[in-house]
Amino acid sequence: MTDSAPPSRARTPWRAVLGGSIGNLVEWFDWFVYASFATYFAGAFFPKGNDTAQLLNTAGIFAVGFFMRPVGGWLLGRFADRRGRKAALTLTVTLMSVSALLIAIAPTYDQVGYFGAAVLLVARLLQGLSVGGEYAASATYLTEASRPGRRGFVSSFQYVSMTMGQLIGLGLQILLQHTMSDDALHSYGWRIPFVVGAVAAAVVFWLRRNLLETEVYAEEDARQDQERGTLGELLRHRKEAALVIALTMGGTVAYYTYTTYLTKYLSNTAGMSKSDASLVSFCALFLFMLLQPLAGSLSDRIGRRPLLITFGFGSMLGTVPIMTALSHADSFAGALLLSLAALVIVTGYTSINAVVKAELFPTHVRALGVALPYALANALFGGTAEYVALWFKKGDAESGFYWYVSACAAVSLIVYLTMRETRDAALSRDRAGGPAASGKQQKTAV
């Protein structure tokens, strides 16, 4: 059974926003730390040789974590629909803590051969399981914990927290780069952020246990619906599920290109030092983070589709020139401006994609409906973005990746142009997907 909060407590909005966001921050700190520190630990788990080949192997394990996300989306999405958003949020951060600890203590190739890579793989599988459920649990929790006119603004804090997690990871990387030698970082320094992540996740576990369940879910839970969170029920909303996959495709490829892959790209292709590349990413992501609530609030005024369409056109037309210019960036300022330009375009997707997906589904299948299709899209496109980029680079055809990103954006753009507006959708719906007109379920206010 889920907790039933008194109205006075349920109307403490920022407690819900903070509780959902801070856990999301730690989740994505651990998730992105793997990517941002890969240049330092890639050689620890694989035989010495070509740097790009080592990164390719490490990126492959990174992608494997994404392929676990659909499993996490199914299991934890079902769990969130049947047991509550709060219970799912607590479980996901527990799994992330365990996975971070495994990476922190994993033995190297010189110590045990490929067994260390196997431990790394298990940890990534756990991370994939956790994040597969975290996205949907967080998206549904933040969406349901806000009134209709503020859902875009409140749900944008999902990417604020995701980006803040990445910023903290990059900030820690920059700090370690300036306080430790390069040899020390390659030897043992890369383990530090994973220890930090494991401890922070344990703290968030305690914080999330004190969260309140959303009123929308608590009222739905009273029905004791046995079909909540089932695949059969999701199939009744297969059109919406397919829509989630299609609208995610271009956004997730662009997002991972300009976030997790950007530091490696600036270092491995543009020839910038690792420390300068990290600093460019940090500054660009900080400004990107500040844009999310502004864009989310704008969507509450003008709708979700205009922002998505702007992203679609911008990514389709702007990726090739921006990535080409970045490959020749020879100054910090030039690289920062180009990176920020790309992230401004991506904001049209990131700031509202969570709320759009949550608004497509009724309460009893909302978490699963968001989790599984989104996780499938990320496994196919987001998780492989870095691997595809390095594959093109290894084949001396790096510009092919730029066109790949543009093509993915073009496919999603077609969806954005034809989909319905979701801004005014009621969170409580009947089985046919129509409004249930329950004013009581819209009480939770931010």
UniProtKB/TrEMBL annotation:
Residues 16-423 form the Major facilitator superfamily (MFS) profile domain. The keyword Transport applies. Keywords: Cell membrane, Membrane, Symport, Transmembrane, Transmembrane helix, Transport. It holds the Pfam family MFS_1. PROSITE patterns: MFS (PS50850), SUGAR_TRANSPORT_2 (PS00217). It is found in: Cell membrane. The chain crosses the membrane at residues 28-46, 58-76, 88-106, 112-136, 157-176, 188-207, 241-258, 278-295, 307-326, 332-356, 368-389, 401-419. InterPro entries: H+-coupled_symporters, MFS, MFS_dom, MFS_trans_sf, Sugar_transporter_CS. The keyword Translocase does not apply. It is a multi-pass membrane protein. Belongs to the major facilitator superfamily. Metabolite:H+ Symporter (MHS) family (TC 2.A.1.6) family. This is MFS dicarboxylate transporter.
